[in-house]
Specification:
Length: 272
């Protein structure tokens, strides 16, 4: 258990549950069009062990007036091994990935209330998840209308189907996913997004997951930004052999793209 905790901490991998924070991908008051980004995160460390973590991800966001369709995916690879290559069976490999699809539909004209539908498929070798399927739906409420300070609260009912790696165990549960998020943007090139999720199992409320994800985004250029993220997750009943609490910090780069702005055509003056 201790070895697994240290491996997760120093490689920066998000071990428990792989709950996806979609909040920093939402677009408020944007014109209709296709938006997206590509991200890369590499963490290399050498002490008594060689530690390598690589994560590649991307997303697409299709805006339809007041509605949004978000597709996000990520692939990760982690390796940990003793520096002394003469020691056998001391190399740990881990890989994980997920694909998340979410549709948000505005209920009222002011966009204060919306309804969401989502599905997610994932796997994580380190947490012994061979496959996990999520399907859910529920309301989302906008609590403020400030352009530089947005607060939201959401409540989703979701179905979870989980297959444990190398074991004949299939879990099928229904959970409630309640989340609170805020997005602060003091400057045009600086933003801070914080989201906290609570996900209890309906048939056993003592079996819950708690996640807080905090992301600081610093613009380098119009399309390139630096991301610094701190995550903490607590699983009341994690898979066998894993700790309840995991926290990590990592940074990386994200490249954004968006529709080109249409420049107005200058009309030539009439010549008589």
């Amino acid at each position: 258990m201790i070895r697994t905790f240290i491996f997760c901490l120093f490689t920066g991998s998000f071990c428990h549950g792989q709950i996806v924070n979609i909040e920093q991908l939402r677009l408020e008051n944007k014109n209709s069009g296709l938006y997206g980004s590509l991200s890369a995160n590499v963490n290399i460390q050498r002490n008594t062990r060689n530690l390598l973590n690589l994560k590649l991800g991307g997303h697409l966001n299709k805006v339809y007036d007041k509605n949004q369709l978000i597709l996000k995916g990520e692939l990760g690879f982690a390796q940990s091994g003793n520096i002394d290559r003469t020691i056998e069976d001391d190399i740990d490999f881990s890989n994980d990935g997920f694909l998340h699809l979410r549709y948000t539909q505005a209920v009222d004209t002011s966009r204060t209330v919306s309804w969401e539908y989502f599905t997610q498929i994932q796997y994580n070798k380190l947490t012994r998840i061979d496959s996990r399927l999520l399907v859910g739906s529920g309301p989302r409420f906008q609590l403020t209308k400030f352009d530089n300070a947005l607060f939201h609260w959401g409540l989703i009912l979701m179905y979870e189907r989980e297959q444990i790696f190398e074991e004949d165990i299939l879990n099928s549960d229904v959970r409630v996913s309640s989340y609170f998020s805020f997005n602060l943007k003091p400057q045009s090139t600086v933003s801070f997004v914080s989201t906290t999720y609570v996900q209890p199992r309906i048939m056993s409320w003592s079996d819950y997951r708690l996640l807080t994800d905090n992301i600081l985004q610093l613009g380098i250029t119009d399309k390139l930004e630096l991301q610094i993220s701190i995550r903490l997750t607590y699983d009341r009943e994690p898979p066998t052999g894993l700790p309840n609490l995991i926290y990590n910090m990592f940074n990386g780069l994200r490249y954004k793209f968006q529709p080109k702005k249409v420049k107005p055509v200058k009309k030539s003056p009439l010549v008589f």
